[in-house]
Amino acid sequence: MTEAVARPVPGTPCWVSLMACDLRASEEFYGELFGWRFRRGEDELGPHVRAYLDGLDVAGLGEIRKDHAFPAAWLPYLATDDADETSGLIRDCGGTVGVGPMDSGQGDRVAIAADSAGASFGLWQAAALPEQPAAGRPGTPVWNEIIVPEAMMVTSFYRAVFGYEVERLTASQSDYHTFMLAGRPVCGVRGVGGALPFDRGSMWVTYFAVSELAPALRMVDKLGGRVYSEPRESPYGSYARVCDPDGAPFALIEMLDPRDAVERPLRDR
Fold this sequence. Notes:
- The chain is of the alpha+beta class.
- The chain has 5 helices and 18 strands.
- Residues 263-269 have low confidence and may be disordered.
């Protein structure tokens, strides 16, 4: 049984969850790729599991209802002290709220929303979050970023809803902004022009750490996933964008220093 930890500052990415077309197949894929083990969830929330490493929760996996034509996707959840109030702000600022807010057990309240560019994310008003593995450990999420045609499309939205300070990357020609809370980077937004990856629109992408990138990419291919990009170098390690057999996009990064997961954003790419 995992211990609960204090609630994070509102706006901080605090959890990631996969909405899968085939939950059992997703368990097999991510279990092999990351070494995750799984616990079954409560039935009233539909088929879902918690993934864990060494007994600590690392991600959630749920199954998309057969009558819903949603694509499989990873969603980062952003912390909030009041899911209903934040949902109202999202609507007021040009976003949408597609699910909830609703109670999810143990005093938690959640919602699934989309920003002003259509990128989906979750809200989590948690009584207390489960203890999670140290950031930077292989198999854990280490960074989240929004992919949009132009970063300025969403910076005002997130500043208004979550109070982010916005820092623009000026060291290169990249259209990259980092969202900060109390001087600490928490997530980023990348403008890519018309080159949106994964043949989808604007979206959030979660980066997971791996011990070695090349074997991890071979494993993705072997397990029925797809490698979308050649490995690229960054100051924080080599990374590549991939998707699972359901088509859910994510990224893998072989971090040079796991401390980068909490001390510096993975942005200079």
